[in-house]
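We treat protein structure as text, and this decision shapes the records that our systems exchange. Below, we set out a record of this kind in full and without editing:

***
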Amino acid sequence: MNIEARQTIPKLYYYITPIFILLDYVLGISIRVTVLDSMPMYKNLYYGFCILCGVFVYTVPKLTPAVALFESSINFLITVLAVFMPYINFISKTDDYLMADLPAAAGFDTPHIVNILLAGTIAILGFHGSIKILGIHDKRPHSKTGRKIETDEQ
């Protein structure tokens, strides 16, 4: 994948943020940040942050990798929360532990699964693409480079 393609994926993700907002607030289909559905203030802050990222990468395209690296880290945290919050909520309700209907399973409906797949994929592509563009990958060992780990003892 060339450098232009690596920058295009995060840019498109930021540019289509208004579509995700419309889906969420007009049609009630929340797939961008489902874990924040119960916290509207944080959800709006995240949407605003993504819009600012889109404006920033549009106005200063050469900083797209740095913006994508920062946003993908936040996106990764949100994805981890999306996976573990239903589990933590389930565990915290010990009196409901032996009930037949598992409330943790309700947290993994179709919008949540789509959010995890979408956010996880974009976070991974944005993170690794940004690392490559920023040249950070040259300073760490990688399984495909064949380089050995350098130590001070050599």
